[in-house]
Amino acid sequence: MGRRLGRGKDGIVFVAVSKLKALRSAIKSHNGLEAYRRERCAYERLAECRVRDIEGFHVPQFLGADDELLVIEMTIVARPFVLDFASAYLDRPPEFPEGVMDDWEAEKREEFGGNWPVVESVLQTLRSHGVHLLDLNPGNIGFLDLE
Q1: What is the pTM of this model?
Q2: Could you tell me the residue ranges of all domains in the chain?
Q3: CA distance 115 to 37
Q4: Are 59 and 51 a contacting pair, CB within 8 Å?
């Protein structure tokens, strides 16, 4: 494995080092089976739908997976990007008690500030492909830094 690209509640992402491949890729090692399956299925769905970009945000491309090791290989993308589908649901969102999603949306609206309308559009496009992304934060929907 190469250098670490990221770490989250569901796993660790490393740069894949290979003398055989010219393509730079990332390997995400998952902590648990549920998160691994969700992410693998979401990436497979996006690959089936040929989704490479959403509203100008790059989406990592699925390159492969190992069900025994709970790892996914994907392309590395630059900002702006949408990534980390370990908490995504396919085809329908999970059911929550009344008011939970309203509170969630209010929290995310505040977290993303003026970028919220763009985030909503990205989420709607994902939903049109049957992917319901719940783990929203600026690390997973990364805007282009203009600093």
Answers
A1: 0.88
A2: 4-142
A3: 30
A4: yes
Cβ pair 115, 76 in contact under 8 A = no
The residue length of the chain stands at: 147
Record: fold of 4-142: Phosphorylase Kinase; domain 1 (3.30.200)
DSSP category for residue 113: G
Give start and end residues of each alpha helix (H) in the chain. Answer: 33-48, 100-112, 116-128
> Strand 25-30 and strand 71-75: pairing?
antiparallel
Q: Which two tokens stand for residue 94?
A: 């999970």
Per-residue pLDDT 10s for the chain (147 aa) are 578 777 878 888 988 877 666 677 999 999 999 999 999 999 999 999 999 999 999 999 999 999 999 999 999 999 999 999 999 999 998 898 999 999 999 999 999 999 999 999 999 999 999 999 999 999 999 998 754
